[in-house]
Design a protein that fits this description.
3 domains, 445 residues, mainly alpha, four-stranded antiparallel β-sheet, 4 strands
Amino acid sequence: MATKPDTIFRALDRKAAAVTEFTMRQYRTKLSTWVVLITGFLIISLLLLFYVDGMQKEYESIDNDGDSYDWDGDGYPTGQERLYGTDPRSEDSHPGLLDPPVEPDPPEKWIDEDDFDWESTPGAGQTISVGHDDDGDCDREDRTESQKDSNDNGIPCDIVLEGPRVGMEESGFTVDADSFVDEDPDDAAYAKEAIHRASILAIGKLGFVFIIGIFVPLFLATGLIRDEMSSGTMHYMLSKPIARTEVFLYRILGYLGIVWPYLAILVFISALVTGLAGPSDSFFRFSEFGIWLSVLFAAMLATLVYGMLFCFFGVLWRYGVILAIPFAAWELGMALLSMGMPDASILRFSVIGWSLTIIDSAAMLVWPDLDLFVQMGTWGGDGDGTGLFGSSIEGAVPLSYFSSKPGLGNIGPFLSMLIASLVLIVQAAGLWLIGGLLFKGKEIE
């Protein structure tokens, strides 16, 4: 039987497979590998436990506009008196005196009665949001036109969002609503949805991209070449005709052969937990799979770049981990900076800044109402707990912190994701070339 000619490509395939398989076997037999991977699993599990606890918590809906109270003691809540045009400040004026008389509503009816239900339409230089006056206290007949149009935009009982169109890349919404429109939202429903979204972004950004993305490569990749050089076993690897730059690459491939499946398993578990435990009318929330795929992709690229970098540190110096630790601290600072200042130019000089851009871009695509949703919870305030309702709704502040716009200008989320991915791939390729060249000039002990 005729055999295929031994081409250069087949030779490369055999060398790549041999070094990669040898590296993966080394990892599987090292106790330190399992300690690092189990620690990462426990960290993600702990974050998921906090998430599940947040989803099981009961959030109290409060009367944001005070119309469930019977201020004058006549047995009728203020909202009902406003609706029927009686005086909520006088016990001698109430809907029970009308013809025919009206029975008093239970106070609970006037809690969460005017929820967020905005439909956005583009206006000239702004977004006009058509708010629905669910309880009728804005649009009742005894109100003058100026009372119905207190924001002076010519449309009675509506809401104006000054700033960008919903779903665009700019930020900076300000809300100017007519009086008594959507002023009493469903706090419990908002809180659960906001904490659900904030938790996904927090687990993805800090759990996967930062903690797993940095510390797994720190312990697994720093000694990838250095340990073999120090022990002398690198001689066996180089005894065959194989370039050192190839060895550098194939060793990284072996490292990725362990780390990437590990990431995929952890992300799948996280997606399963949040899909089952998240607020939803159905059994499972499928809508967030796009977010989790972006988390997996960003974490994979982060572990690739950090793996190349830390392996390079190991080749550069026997104690390369000492060089890696300050870099990890720098990346932590950049991760925290990206939460508050995602458009800061200094983030472009970090790996994590580009990695988080991928997740932020995906969040904009999966949740096109994200900016508006954050603004709902901090409506009239500045995000510090003060606002039109006296305080921001629970969950709004953490969601505002963990959700960010990609800091790449007004180029759109898909293009931002593409650019960030290409930058990370170029960084990895550059580190491979530099690390390979450095490895070529190193003496093997």
